[in-house]
Amino acid sequence: MTTIANVQWALRLQAEFDHSIPLTRAIGVRVTNYDGKLLELSAPLAPNVNDKGTAFGGSISCLLTLAAWGVVWIACARAKVPCDIVIHKGNITYNKPVQVDLHAVCPIPPRAQMQKFIKRLKKKGRARIGLRSELVAEGDIMTLFECQYAAFFAKE
Amino acid sequence: MTTIANVQWALRLQAEFDHSIPLTRAIGVRVTNYDGKLLELSAPLAPNVNDKGTAFGGSISCLLTLAAWGVVWIACARAKVPCDIVIHKGNITYNKPVQVDLHAVCPIPPRAQMQKFIKRLKKKGRARIGLRSELVAEGDIMTLFECQYAAFFAKE
């Protein structure tokens, strides 16, 4: 749902990208939707083009990585758990070339799974979570990224 | 071996990155070694930093993707086979955070495997090849990317 709170989380994540990860500016990453069910990041094709005039695989990988990272970042920030979030591993499959602007969607895992993740993070100081983010265009999944993130509670 | 021919291939690949994939300029990708046995790409940490002051996972993924792509690009160019080279899929494992400038190394597969790939590409108009590229620092593999590329012979 597009609530004021959700829009504020989207704006905070955008500020985090702009401030802390300079390459996101070169890619042109925009947080274009966060409704509590999914996070969507977008980027124009032009700065992310390759030698074939389609989207550079590395740019797609960046956007999918950031979308999954953003889902965990918002979840931890909402739960007021200050922590470092790092990618552990990922499998990427490029199904089709992308000839349009980029839209990466990462669905937020079910509430029970998120609660378990946050509970473990608070108790153990670290927790892992699996995510699936998708580069979508024309109703198709052009690229699929299945990944695992780890969060480390910053105790200081 | 650092021969004049190998240095020329490195320079051509650098020109291809600079000309055809604009994001490589933002990342600061440099072709730093091509000796016929491996291809090494490097990038400074500063433009590729994340919120933790270490290398952004997306930047690492880009550099590893480009290193593997570069190995196939040089192999096809050397064999005088004009073709499109696209990544099909990849598995990435981030072992340790990277706190220094980035160096991605992709070993060139054994001669027999490369010859088989080029032969198939010429005969069938398409061929696939598996590669393994590594982000190395302090003698360790910080990130490992195992990937598969496809090449399509441009018949026109």
| Multimeric status of the protein | homodimer
Class of secondary structure makeup of chain A: alpha+beta
State the strand order across the main sheet of chain A: 1-2-4-5-6-3
Cα-based radius of gyration of chain A, to the nearest Å: 15 Å
Distance between the termini of chain A: 34 Å
Tally of DSSP helical segments of chain A: 4
- Tell me, briefly, the overall form of chain A: globular
Which consecutive residue ranges of chain A, at least 5 long each, have pLDDT under 50? none
Mind explaining what this structure looks like?
Two copies of one chain form a homodimer. By secondary structure, chain A is an alpha+beta fold. In chain A, 37% of the residues lie in helices and 35% in strands. A six-stranded antiparallel β-sheet of chain A has the order 1-2-4-5-6-3. In chain A, a hairpin with a 2-residue loop joins strand 5 and strand 6. Chain A starts with a helix and ends with a strand. The A-B interface holds A 16, 20-23, 26-27, 46-52, 56-59, 61-63, 65-66, 69, 84, 86-94, 97 and B 16, 20-23, 26-27, 46-52, 56-59, 61-63, 65-66, 69, 84, 86-94, 97. Strand 3 (83-94) of chain A pairs antiparallel with strand 3 of chain B, so a sheet runs across the interface.
